[in-house]
Amino acid sequence: MSRILPHPVMAAVLLIVWVLLMDSLAPGVVLLGVILSLLLTHWSANFWASQPRFHRVGVLLRFIPLVLWDIVVANLNVARLILGSNSKLRPHFLEVPLDLSDPYAKVVLASVITLTPGTVSAEFSEDRQTLLVHALNIADPDEEIRQIKTRYEAPLKEIFECSTSR
Amino acid sequence: MITDVIISALLIFGAALALIGSLGLAKLPDFFMRLHGPSKATTLGLGSILIAAAVYGLSSDTLGIAARPILITFFLFITTPVSAHLLARAAIRHRLYSQAELPPQREPKHEPPQR
């Protein structure tokens, strides 16, 4: 199983994306998609540190709409900030200490922070346990850090690292 | 008729957000704050334009068109943060002018770039 198909989930995603892009279910298209997804996952197998594990799919399903909603709200907020006066903005660098250890969880957290406007993840510390975040307008840095940790980091920790299974 | 109204509203909303994002890129005072402008234009701005395209695809006979905007949104959402992160990282290394206090330098000191 692992020899032939090192990353079954990634292979499946690649195949689905391929079929959707080609917009066809013709046998030739599907066959080529299967061959490509097998070859690509095989060739890139050494590149991936580990297999991401999704422990709590339910949490993930609640997390995605939460993030989408936050993106909408924060977008409108930042649009208002941009149209307002520059001198009212209080930009700030936040140092968010991380409790995550899974590299995929960290990547998702950094991406989510950037996607929700008003904050951009800027740099990981050398030991990868602190994430530097630039915020466009912050009244209370500690409150914002707490917000990031409870709203995004805690569910990600549950999704990627919950140790109850296996 | 109603789908036309929805599509038009989404297009105008998305275009307005893209405009505001670009405006932010032009008017905000330092590099790190400017990064926030485009990250916004690509999330909700392009998002609503692509939703409009998906609605159009669903309302017309060619169903396949609906899938592509969703794929584009997906690709954008996974690539935008990476480029923003790299830009911010490079800017910190170069000690670009910032209104927010920059974090302490980790590497051996370089001459701060002229601004």
Sketch the major β-sheet of chain A. Answer: 3 strands, antiparallel
The helix content of chain A, as a percent range, equals 55-70%
Helix percent of chain B reads: over 70%
Q: Report the strand count of chain B.
A: 0
* Alpha-carbon distance between the two ends of chain B: 54 Å
The number of helices of chain B is: 3
The ordered H/E elements of chain B are HHH
- Overall pLDDT of chain B, averaged? 80
Count, helices of chain A: 5
> What structural category arises from helix and sheet content of chain A?
mainly alpha
Low-confidence stretches of chain A: none
Largest sheet of chain B: none
Average pLDDT confidence of chain A is: 81
Task: Explain this structure.
- The complex is a heterodimer of chains A (166) and B (115).
- With 166 residues, chain A is mostly helical.
- Chain A has a three-stranded antiparallel beta sheet with strand order 1-3-2.
- Chain A has five helices and three strands.
- Chain B is built from three helices and no strands.
- The interface between A and B is large, with 34 and 42 residues.
Task: Label this structure with key terms.
heterodimer, A: 166 residues, mainly alpha, 3 strands, B: 115 residues, 3 helices, 74% helix
